[in-house]
Amino acid sequence: MNPPDLIGSARQRAGGASPGRGRPRQTDLQRAVSDAYYAMFHTLAACCANLLIGTGYAARRRPEWRQIYRALEHGHARRQCSNARAN
Fold first, then answer.
1. One-character DSSP codes across 9-62
2. How does pLDDT run across 1-45, given as a tens digit for each residue?
């Protein structure tokens, strides 16, 4: 997953990339929110793995990096982000 590509997709779906197109459909807005969420989630997962294992090509090829990247749970991450926003 490439977070910048997901953000670009979200902007396009929400109408940011094509002015004059009219109001975006509800399904496009929902998909835009989903794309933005996954961009954030994959960025957070990569940050966690980078902090614990390291950055760079060699670190990302280690099984430990991939395990940490994949260990982040959506529900837990969402709750923690909501808690941080509330405080």
1. HHHHHTTSSSTTS-SPPHHHHHHHHHHHHHHHHHHHHHHHHHHHT-SSHHHHTS
2. 799 999 999 999 998 656 666 788 999 999 999 999 999 999 999
Cβ contacts of 13 within 8 Å, gap of 6 or more: 24, 28, 29, 31, 32, 35
pTM of the model: 0.80
Separation of alpha carbons 14 and 58, rounded Å: 37
Distance of CA 84 to the CA centre of its chain: 17
24-47 CB burial, b ≥16 within 10 A, e <16: beeebeebbeebbbbbbbbebbbe
